[in-house]
Specification:
- It is a single chain.
- This protein is of the alpha/beta class.
- It folds into two domains: about 10-15 and about 100-220, Rossmann fold (3-Layer(aba) Sandwich), CATH 3.40.50; about 20-90, Orthogonal Bundle (DNA polymerase, domain 1).
- It contains nine helices and eight strands.
- Helix 3 packs across helix 4 (about 75-90).
- It starts with 7 loop residues before the first strand and ends with a helix.
């Protein structure tokens, strides 16, 4: 089986196209060190990624996935500023594209598909990372987590992307590694592909009922 009548492919970024956890973890621990707080392993921080920078910082300050409701707002603002400043200066030190991402994206582009990124990552970080990895030229445009008033799992970014590209929901497919991606697709009736290698909080991607599941990014070629 494969998709039919698709024109635009929407991609999540972190955990789908790139493994950015090494640099995110370094920035998180830099922030925590600056605040004289406990630091955490990269494996622990990996489970906190996927909901944008603000949630990541709150989870780091809480020391767990569940955010401390009593978190000091002043501390949070200071921590967020430290994190964003450091991360912005160290975006692509150890970040790398997953296997077969570059070749598959170029193949899809050559087939005539238009490619879009819909990420919860702050918009200003997306372009420099794509450029550093040589991926910026294949995408028509991208949305960050701060581009609109809502982000995934709300369907608004996906609907906005459809409108911007002048296509219907049925002409698009969402590719992602987490519940945020698949729930956003489900919430607007868009078909989806779940990848098994990303950051999905330790959960099996299949429980969110993607249209297809792939273990390697290159498997997209057989679906489109």
């Amino acid at each position: 089986m494969k998709f039919t009548n698709k024109e635009v492919i929407l991609f999540d970024l972190d955990g789908t196209l790139i493994d950015s956890v090494p640099d995110l973890a370094t920035a998180v621990n830099h922030m925590l060190n600056a605040l004289h707080r406990e630091t955490f392993s990269e494996d622990t921080i990996r489970y906190w990624v996927g909901n944008g920078a603000q949630v990541l910082v709150k989870r780091a300050l809480s020391g767990q996935t569940e955010i401390d409701e009593k978190l000091d707002p002043t501390l949070f603002e200071k921590a967020l500023d430290i994190f964003l400043t450091f991360y912005g200066e160290n975006l692509c030190i150890d970040t790398a594209a997953y296997p077969n991402v570059s070749t598959t994206l170029h193949t899809l582009k050559e087939k005539g598909y238009r490619l879009v990124i819909v990420t919860n990552k702050p918009f200003d970080f997306v372009g420099p990372i794509l450029e550093a990895l040589g991926l910026d030229g294949v995408f028509d445009f991208w949305l960050g987590g701060d581009s609109l008033e809502k982000k995934k799992p709300d369907p608004l970014p996906l609907l906005h992307a459809c409108e911007h590209m002048n296509v219907s929901i049925s002409q698009c497919v969402m590719v992602g590694d987490s519940r945020n991606d698949l729930l956003a697709a489900k919430n607007c009736g868009m078909q989806s592909v779940g990848v098994t290698y990303g950051y999905n909080y330790g959960e099996e991607i299949g429980i969110y009922d993607p249209t297809f599941i792939i273990d390697d990014f290159s498997e997209l070629n057989a679906l489109l």
